[in-house]
Design goal:
The structure holds 2 protein chains of 2 kinds. Chain A is α+β, with helices and mostly antiparallel strands. In chain A, 14% of the residues lie in helices and 30% in strands. Chain A has one domain. The longest helix of chain A has 25 residues. Chain B is of the alpha+beta class. Chain B has a 5-stranded mixed beta sheet with strand order 2-10-9-4-5, with no helix packed on it. In chain B, strands 1-3-6 form a 3-stranded antiparallel beta sheet, with no helix packed on it. Chain B has a two-stranded antiparallel sheet with strand order 7-8. The chains are: A alpha+beta, B alpha+beta.
């Protein structure tokens, strides 16, 4: 009889231990530790913040227009804002003086087509050139131009400082057999922190 | 009383001062960021704040988007167009919260199904998402109808998400506790019944 009471007591004790153990497993803050140490700590932090802003010239905001082309093939037709009376381009992007890091400027376009689906291949037909220091008759120049790409951005001028501008010119060539129509697309300009990839 | 000549002169002067400014009016967008790399836990929601601003002459509506490489993880309200009044400097930038849910990317090694007696050894390479957060004008500028292109302007901030892996061993506690409980309860009742019988 006494032995059975003892066994019951042991069983009950095991249950109590299991319950306490389970509770302490799920509530770690209740665990009893053997040693107590005192440490003093303080947090330290610093935040580095960047900000950049760009704007487009009013001519660039108004779009890149090539007018009506009546004779094919046409080679390197100037966009209407490529030259003003002083032979300056009217297309530029300005980096705000309210920026705290220089930028690289990237350009891409999407398909240059008509609403009916005729398309002028951008490759070798739609060119752009840029220059951040000179805006005159010679610069930005066709010889140093890039093909407009429609898959990923292409990096043009790099390291344009806050308060400075980057100047652009655009040219369009049209092959002889190109279907008549009004061709349109969107050209995207993106500023990134200098040294970063242009992305997609 | 001012004579008409003086009034005409003032009007002319105002035209000379104001008209070129109107002609030079520019519009653009800006972005403010305070983080480029974030350690994020898998299976959890995270948010990062970005500022958008417009220190230029014209009001614009801008949208926050992300590059394709971040699309597997980033969802949420980031694409809501935001109106930016002209002349907003970076310290008055409008805050947009970019929220996203990071899915479970590391596979657990489980003994039963996908849930029971699992361990995470973190032996797989770290999962990273590299991309950028872009603020763009909501709609391209320029006329359509003529031969040429409309233009769209944007600025971007780089963003890398590093998904952290939390290593943990296989946990048999539930089995041990279960077995001991069954033995203890079974033994308790077994001996009580025996005691009553006696």
């Amino acid at each position: 009889m006494d032995t059975e009471n003892k066994i019951l007591g042991v069983m009950a004790a095991i249950l109590v231990v299991l319950i306490v153990g389970t509770i302490s497993t799920f509530m770690p803050q209740l665990q009893i530790t053997g040693a107590q140490t005192y440490t003093q700590q303080t947090t330290s932090n610093a935040t580095i913040q960047y900000y950049i802003s760009i704007s487009s010239s009013s001519n660039l905001s108004a779009g890149i227009n090539f007018g009506t082309i009546t004779s094919l093939p046409a080679t390197a037709v100037n966009a209407t804002g490529n030259y003003n009376e002083s032979y300056n381009t009217q297309y530029w992007i300005a980096v705000s003086s309210d920026s705290n890091t220089p930028v690289d400027l990237c350009v891409k376009g999407d398909a240059f087509n008509t609403s009916g689906g005729d398309e002028i291949d951008l490759e070798n037909n739609y060119n752009w050139s840029d220059n951040s220091t000179t805006n005159d008759y010679d610069w930005p120049d066709l010889a140093g131009s890039y093909n407009l790409t429609n898959t990923t951005y292409l990096k043009g001028t790099t390291n344009v400082a806050a308060g400075d501008s980057n100047f652009y010119r655009f040219w369009l060539s049209v092959p002889a057999a190109q279907a008549a129509g009004t061709y349109n697309n969107t050209v995207y300009f993106k500023a990134i922190q200098t040294g970063q990839p242009c992305g997609s | 009383m001012m004579d008409s000549r003086k009034l005409a002169s003032i009007a002319l002067l105002m035209c000379f001062v104001l008209l070129p400014q109107a002609a030079m009016a520019s519009k653009g967008v800006g972005i403010v960021w305070s983080t480029q790399t974030e350690a994020v836990a898998e299976n959890a929601r995270h948010c990062i704040n970005y500022g958008v601003y417009n220190p230029w002459d014209e009001d614009v509506t801008a949208v926050l988007t992300v590059s394709d490489t971040l699309r597997p993880v980033i969802t949420g309200e980031y694409s809501t167009p935001t109106f930016l009044a002209a002349g907003t400097m970076h310290d008055d930038a409008k805050q947009i919260q970019l929220c996203f849910y990071v899915p479970k990317v590391y596979t657990d090694d489980c003994l039963v199904g996908n849930m029971l007696f699992c361990e995470q050894t973190c032996s797989e390479p770290e999962v990273r998402y590299d991309g950028e957060v872009i603020v763009m004008e909501a709609a391209p500028s320029g006329q359509t109808g003529a031969m040429g292109s409309t233009t769209a302007l944007g600025v971007s901030a780089p963003l890398t998400l590093r998904v952290t892996c939390n290593e943990y061993p296989r946990d048999y506690t539930i089995i041990i506790v279960g077995v001991v409980c069954v033995v203890a309860v079974g033994g308790y009742y077994y001996f009580r019944i025996r005691k009553k019988k006696k």
